[in-house]
Design goal:
Blueprint (H helix, E strand, L loop, with lengths): L1 H12 L5 E4 L6 H11 L4 E3 L2 E3 L13 E3 L2 H9 L3 E7 L2 E6 H8 L4 E5 L2 H8 L6 E6 L3 H11 L4 H18 L7 E4 L3 H11 L1 H13 L1
Parallel strand pairs: 1-7, 1-8, 2-7, 3-4, 8-9
Antiparallel strand pairs: 3-6, 5-6
Helix pairs in contact: 6-7
The protein binds guanosine-5'-diphosphate and adenosine-5'-diphosphate.
Main location: cytoplasm
Catalytic activity: GMP + ATP = GDP + ADP
Subcellular location: Cytoplasm
Length: 211
């Protein structure tokens, strides 16, 4: 009872509750997140992860990711600068403490886009986020979207598809995610996402209006 009270009080002091987005590569996480952040400017802030993968055309260093070498990333991990890190499809990815603090310092809802290893690791930390999994309607649709995105080589595509099967199973595990959204029709999935986050959005809007 007291524990729950104090953990709520602590969360309130740390600002709004962060939101974790997970799900297979190609499920539509970035598409949905970008729409959300555009519509609700000043409500959400993106936790900019570090990665050793190369930037894609149109991606910006410091906005989509911090693009770093393995050496730099490993050193920062060893220095205790990361909340969590993982290897996905042969590249390192991780959430730095600074990335989350930068968003929380502005009293915004911190959005994390992380894989299932990240979800497992964050569960053991005191971030206390809401967990949302974004899933594709089927493996065939996922493959088509990933191919049409034209960001992957055949090799990295195959790695992503393999990982996607595991991520899809993980999405069904009980007691991991608070919400599951199937991204079939984009507008419908986006509507569900907004509905899911309505309470959080209204809380942040009220606080920013009263300050
Ligand atoms: N654990 C963890 N996973 C991350 C992080 N940043 C991104 N990811 C995940 O890494 C995977 C690959 O991301 P990316 O290379 O951008 O490819 P995409 O998901 O196909 O657009 C996705 O599942 C992301 O959710 C992070 O900081 N930590
Ligand atoms: N509902 C949808 N219908 C059709 N295409 C979609 C839909 N959602 C996303 N896409 C497209 O599918 C591809 C993968 O989406 P993306 O947001 O990059 O996924 P993720 O961030 O989960 O890897 C992108 O090219 C995107 O434009």
């Amino acid at each position: 009872m007291y524990m729950r009270y104090f953990s709520r009080l602590f969360s309130a002091m740390a600002g709004p509750r962060p939101v974790v987005f997970s799900g297979p590569s190609g499920a539509g996480k970035s598409t949905l997140l970008k729409k959300l952040m555009k519509e609700y400017d000043g409500v959400f802030g993106f936790s900019v992860s570090h990665t050793t993968r190369n930037p894609r055309p149109g991606e910006e260093n410091g906005k989509d990711y911090h693009y770093v070498t393995r050496e730099v990333m490993q050193k920062a991990i060893d220095n205790g600068e990361f909340i969590e890190s993982a290897v996905f499809s042969g590249n390192m990815y991780g959430t730095s403490k600074a990335a989350v603090q930068a968003v929380q310092a502005k009293n915004l809802i911190c959005i994390l886009d992380i894989d299932m290893q990240g979800v497992r690791n964050i569960k053991n930390k005191d971030l206390n986020p809401l967990y949302i999994t974004i899933q594709p309607p089927s493996m065939a649709v996922l493959e088509k979207r990933l191919r049409d995105r034209k960001t992957e080589t055949e090799e990295s595509l195959q790695k992503r598809l393999h990982a996607a099967q595991v991520e899809m199973e993980f999405g069904k595990e009980p007691n991991v995610f608070d919400f599951l959204i199937i991204n079939d029709n984009l507008d419908e999935a986006y509507g569900q996402l907004k509905e899911t986050l309505r309470e959080e959005i209204n809380t942040v809007k009220k606080v920013s209006m009263s300050s």
